[in-house]
Amino acid sequence: AVLIKKEPEFSEALLLQHYKRKASEVTLARVPLFSYLDPIERRKIAEQLTPMNVEEGAVIITEGELGDSMYIIKSGQVGVYTTLLQADGVSVIKTDQERLHLATLQEGDFFGEQALITKEPRSATTIALSDVQLLKFTKRDLAVVVKQYPRVGTLLKKYHQQRISSTLESLKSIW
C-alpha cells in the first residue's frame, strides 16, 4: 500500500499487466486446446503469450511464408483464404482476385499452428475482418508449454488433423 501511494505510475502499470494477464487466462479457458487445464496452469501459459492488436483489413499471415507463431483470437474475426490449390497432385496458383475463402474464425479460435507442427510454409493467408485482439504464441513458447503439459501438444495435432480434413472437404465441394 505504501508503494502504491509513493509510486502511482508503477502501481498502475502492475494493475494493467495483471488485468491483461487475467483477460488472457479467460480467453484461454474458451479455447478447447486449453479449457481442460486448471486456472493456475492457464495462468502459467498466459504468461507465455504476447498480446497483439490488428486493424481491420490487415494481413496477419501470408500464404507461402515460413512461420514461427500461432495465434489465439481474443476478440474480433479473422478470415482464412487460400490461393494455392492442389488438383491431381499439381499445385495451381490462383490469382489474387480468385482468393478462396476457407473459414471465418472468431473469439476462442486459433490459427497458424500448422507452421509449428509441420515446419511447412503457411498454407493460407489470414486477414483481420474487424479490429482484432490476438494472443501470439511463438514456437519457443509452445515448446515450453508442451513440455509441461504434453496433452496440449497431442490436442493441437488432433485439431490440426481435423482442420486439414475439413479444408479438403471444402475444396472437394468446389470442384
Break the fold down into its secondary structure elements and pairings.
Layout: H1 2-6, H2 8-30, H3 39-46, E1 50-54, E2 59-61, E3 69-75, E4 78-82, E5 84-87, E6 90-93, E7 100-105, E8 110-111, H4 113-118, E9 125-128, E10 132-138, H5 139-148, H6 150-174
Protein described:
β5 and β6 (90-93) form a beta hairpin. α2 (8-30) packs across α3 and α5 crosses α6. The mean pLDDT is 77. This protein has 6 helices and 10 strands, in the order αααββββββββαββαα. It is 44% helix and 27% strand. It has helices spanning 2-6, 8-30, 39-46, 113-118, 139-148, 150-174; strands spanning 50-54, 59-61, 69-75, 78-82, 84-87, 90-93, 100-105, 110-111, 125-128, 132-138. It starts with a helix and ends with a helix. The chain has a 4-stranded antiparallel β-sheet with strand order 1-10-3-8. The chain has a 4-stranded antiparallel β-sheet with strand order 2-9-4-7. The chain has a two-stranded antiparallel sheet with strand order 5-6. The longest helix has 25 residues, at 150-174. The protein has 175 residues and is of the alpha+beta class.
Key attributes of the depicted protein:
4-stranded antiparallel beta sheet; 6 helices; 44% helix; alpha+beta
Q: What value does the average pLDDT take?
A: 77
Strand count, sense and closure of the main sheet? Answer: 4 strands, antiparallel
The total of helices stands at 6
What's the gyration radius in Å? Answer: 18 Å
Helix share of residues? 40-55%
